[in-house]
């Protein structure tokens, strides 16, 4: 639509003017209402007056239409013909106000101000600008046709790939189920063998601990038996205050005899059976225990039979995990393809090339990033976290040009305000580029985005209407 308007304006700006007689300030389209051979009826139909009262510098009509060429009516409008450029309306209050509003100078016909007619120069510049826009539209539309063809091929390829993967998924799922069964079947004897190995080791370790404890108790008995007579007397315990029973920090004869079970002395067997369990946590040996006693033993390697079961189960697990990962990857790809195929990329898919891409705009403070059909972000240039300005919502253009605007919503919330959102206005351009970003309302951003996909087919240049005089 914009390209059509551009080319029509080119035609109009380049035509020769044809003079049509009518009252000052009246447009050619309204000429039929001003017939000097008949009384004039106000355009709002409110009253009819003699024609000689048109432009008599007195406001008769409530809508001001009887004074198009004077400033008598506060709501009147003066039509500038602007031959060679674009016609326009100005408020009638600007007529003869000493300021040239019309490029053809017709608004200052009686003010004494000397105005220069700049319409032809303005028309020339406008035509040059419109020609550039028309060339952009033509080149952009040419690129758009290529994008449409690429989109068509890409969509067909994705649909074919999706169909193939959906069909393959069933077979892969069956393979995963089969490998899961094999894995579980291999893991049962593996676990039983590992449990048996662990139980055997724990029993062996427990027996070793009992033997080591017995050996340790014998070492302690030997240390305590100061006279080496093979009997431990109460007096031999008095030099070990750490064995204190009542907590006063000293070892008494009574406490020593109590530890010996009331006996005056005990042999090594009685010591190991009744005395050692009472003192083994308190006793401070003059000779530290051997490293073998302190070290925590490690479980020995599995025997060949058990290791073979472990290897078989590990192989089954690896095969299952590999197949399961392939299935998950396939399902992720299927979801991605389904999502991409379901997105609205325009009437002919021309916007599909934007999917998966991001376009940046750098300003003095921020770097803005537009990722079409995904999200818009803002990141400070000098450090700081990224802010989400909205995630893809929908096309938001008017009904007759739906694909001229994108809406991104539900971004990061503002302090005591709404969630951020961004409107992306799309315009025809040879290149794909973000040209500006603004915040017209708090937390509501506007982004200008140029793309060949927004270009429309340029029509042939039609001969324009004649300029008015």
Describe the structure.
With 469 residues, the chain is an alpha+beta fold. The protein folds into 3 domains: 2-116, no CATH class; 127-294, no CATH class; 352-454, Distorted Sandwich (Cation-dependent Mannose-6-phosphate Receptor, Chain A), CATH 2.70.130. The chain is built from 6 helices and 16 strands. The strands form 5 sheets. An 8-stranded mixed sheet has the order 8-9-10-11-12-13-15-14. α2 (119-224) runs antiparallel to α4. The longest helix has 106 residues, at 119-224.
Concise summary:
The chain has 469 residues and is an alpha+beta fold. It has helices spanning 2-13, 119-224, 253-259, 268-279, 291-294, 304-342, and strands at residues 17-18, 40-41, 48-49, 77-80, 88-91, 231-233, 265-267, 359-362, 366-371, 375-380, 387-395, 405-409, 421-428, 433-441, 444-451, 467-468.
**Main β sheet profile:** 8 strands, mixed
* Count of DSSP strands: 16
Give me the secondary-structure category: alpha+beta
Helicity range:
25-40%
Work out the radius of gyration.
49 Å
* Portion in strands: 15-25%
Terminus-to-terminus distance: 28 Å
Strand order of the largest sheet: 8-9-10-11-12-13-15-14
Number of domains: 3
Shape: elongated
The number of helical segments is 6
Order of helices and strands: HEEEEEHEHEHHHEEEEEEEEE
**Low-confidence parts, pLDDT < 50 over ≥5 residues?**
1-17, 461-469
Provide mean pLDDT, rounded: 88
């Amino acid at each position: 639509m914009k390209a059509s308007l551009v080319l029509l304006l080119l035609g109009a700006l380049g035509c020769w003017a044809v003079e049509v007689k009518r009252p000052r300030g009246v447009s050619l389209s309204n000429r039929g209402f001003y017939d000097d051979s008949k009384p004039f009826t106000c355009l709002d139909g409110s009253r009819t007056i003699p024609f000689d009262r048109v432009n008599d510098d007195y406001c008769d009509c409530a809508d001001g239409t009887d004074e198009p060429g004077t400033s008598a009516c506060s709501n009147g409008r003066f039509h500038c013909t602007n031959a060679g450029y674009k016609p326009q309306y100005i408020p009638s209050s600007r007529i003869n106000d000493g300021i040239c509003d019309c490029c053809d100078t017709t608004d200052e016909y009686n003010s004494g101000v000397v105005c220069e007619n700049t319409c032809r120069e303005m028309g020339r510049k406008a035509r040059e600008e419109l020609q550039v826009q028309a060339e952009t539209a033509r080149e952009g539309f040419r690129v758009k046709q290529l994008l449409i063809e690429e989109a068509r091929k890409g969509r067909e390829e994705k649909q074919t790939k999706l169909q193939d993967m959906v069909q393959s998924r069933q077979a892969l799922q069956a393979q995963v189920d089969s490998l899961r069964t094999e894995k579980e079947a291999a893991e049962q004897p593996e676990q039983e063998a590992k449990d048996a190995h662990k139980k055997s080791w724990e029993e062996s370790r427990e027996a070793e601990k009992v033997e080591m404890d017995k050996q340790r108790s014998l070492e302690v008995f030997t240390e305590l038996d100061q006279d080496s007579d093979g009997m431990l007397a109460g007096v031999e315990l008095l030099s070990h205050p750490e064995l204190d029973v009542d907590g006063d920090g000293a070892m008494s004869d009574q406490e020593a005899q109590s530890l010996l079970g009331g006996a005056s002395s005990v042999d090594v067997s009685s010591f190991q059976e009744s005395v050692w369990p009472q003192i083994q946590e308190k006793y401070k040996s003059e000779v530290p225990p051997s490293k073998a006693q302190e070290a925590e033993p490690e479980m020995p390697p599995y025997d060949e039979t058990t290791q073979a079961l472990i290897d078989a189960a590990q192989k089954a697990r690896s095969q299952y995990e590999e197949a399961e990962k392939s299935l998950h990857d396939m399902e992720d790809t299927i979801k991605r393809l389904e999502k991409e195929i379901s997105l609205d990329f325009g009437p002919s898919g021309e916007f599909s090339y934007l999917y998966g891409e991001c376009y940046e705009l750098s300003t003095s403070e921020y770097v803005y990033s537009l990722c079409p059909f995904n999200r818009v972000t803002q990141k400070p240039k000098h450090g700081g976290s990224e802010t989400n300005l909205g995630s893809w919502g929908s096309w938001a253009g008017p009904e007759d040009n739906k694909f001229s605007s994108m809406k991104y919503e539900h971004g990061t919330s503002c302090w005591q305000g709404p969630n951020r959102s961004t409107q992306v206005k799309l315009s025809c351009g040879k290149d794909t580029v973000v040209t500006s970003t603004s915040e017209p309302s708090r937390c509501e951003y506007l982004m200008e985005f140029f793309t060949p996909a927004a270009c429309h087919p340029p029509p042939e240049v039609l001969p324009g209407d004649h300029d008015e005089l």
